[in-house]
Design goal:
The chain is α/β, with parallel strands linked by helices. The chain has a single domain (3-216, 260-288), classed as 3-Layer(aba) Sandwich (Rossmann fold), CATH 3.40.50. The chain has helices at 3-10, 36-47, 59-71, 88-100, 123-148, 153-157, 168-172, 178-198, 248-251, 263-274; strands at residues 27-31, 51-56, 75-80, 105-108, 160-167, 203-210, 226-229, 232-235, 285-288. A seven-stranded parallel sheet has the order 3-2-1-4-5-6-9, sandwiched between helices. Helix 2 packs across helix 10. GO terms for molecular function: oxidoreductase activity, acting on the CH-OH group of donors, NAD or NADP as acceptor; quinone binding.
């Protein structure tokens, strides 16, 4: 069942007064939530009873996700902006607490690629990946500290979690992605440190390292999808993915399950690590790859 179908199925049960689900009554921030994995996380978390802060660079698209959630009886609102911008993290946390009064979960999902061979990668292109994939999650987590590092027994007992999204590129490296791989590796170190420092406050922190998930980052580069950052358009996608004569199994012979993963499947992995189903898991990196790389 897709995240949207799940949301529709339980929509009649979702309300601020009597939420039901794995995240019933919790407040969850999801960055990069207007499309792809982030959108699926926002829909699924709402379906499981969370009040969702839908954050994205494109507030218009983010509002459409909020509208979907509200139409099914869930609760959500938008905080737009660039996660790398000065003051973004402070604004995100302040608006969340002002609206809902607490923060139980953060999914640091916002990100993109800016691929070049290492010897042609300029400083700005390298630094940009560090800013969006490492510095931005760090700043958001740091701003949330006063609301998540509570010493009150009742607050410590609550399910509180942080998910930092990584990639198999961060685990194994990848041709043309020295910047992206370095950043996605760095966020794993951030995760482990947060797990050690914030564990005594009942906060779990884990990483999800995705393999081939069907998003705009893994579609054919020839389709011309771009993201605009600081007035500059950055092309997205992978060259040569446009060969439609091949079956999934032919395109991905190194994936035992024989196909790419869907954003909905990716979101389910995040939900598992966010929910109480993983209450004794922290500092872990969950590989979501269909078996690729084993």
């Amino acid at each position: 069942m897709s995240a949207q179908a799940r949301l529709n199925a339980v929509g009649s049960h979702l309300s601020a007064s009597s939420p039901k689900g794995l995240l019933a009554g919790d407040v969850a921030i999801v960055t990069g939530a207007a499309q792809g994995i982030g959108r699926s996380c926002a829909l699924l978390y709402a379906a499981e009873g969370a009040k969702v802060v839908v954050s994205d660079l494109d507030p218009t698209k983010a509002q459409k996700v909020v509208d979907e959630i509200k139409a099914a009886g869930g609760e959500a609102f938008v905080v737009g902006g660039d996660v790398t911008a000065p003051g973004f993290a402070k604004n995100l946390i302040e608006q969340t607490v002002k609206k809902y009064g607490s923060i139980e979960h953060i999914v640091n999902n916002a990100g993109f690629t800016a691929d070049k061979m290492l010897h042609t990668t300029d400083d700005d292109t390298f630094d940009l990946m560090l800013k969006v994939h490492v510095s931005a999650p760090f700043k958001i987590i740091r701003e949330a500290a006063p609301y998540m590092r509570s010493k009150e027994r009742e607050r410590i007992a609550r399910n509180k979690s942080i998910i930092n999204v990584s990639s198999t590129s961060g685990l194994h490296g990848n041709v043309g992605q020295a910047n992206y791989a370095a950043a996605k590796s760095g966020v794993i170190g951030l995760t482990k440190t947060v797990a050690k420092e914030w564990g005594p406050f009942g906060v779990r922190c884990n990483t999800v390292a995705f393999g081939y998930i069907t998003t705009r980052l893994t579609q054919a580069k020839e389709l011309g999808e771009t993201i605009e950052v600081n007035g500059k358009k950055i092309p997205l996608g992978i060259p040569g993915r446009g060969n439609h004569s091949q079956t999934d199994a032919e395109r991905v012979p190194d994936i035992p399950l024989g196909r790419p993963g869907s954003p909905e499947e990716a979101a389910k992995a995040c939900l598992f690590l966010t929910s109480h189903l993983s209450s004794y898991i922290s500092g872990h990196t969950l590989e979501v790859t269909g078996g690729r790389g084993i």
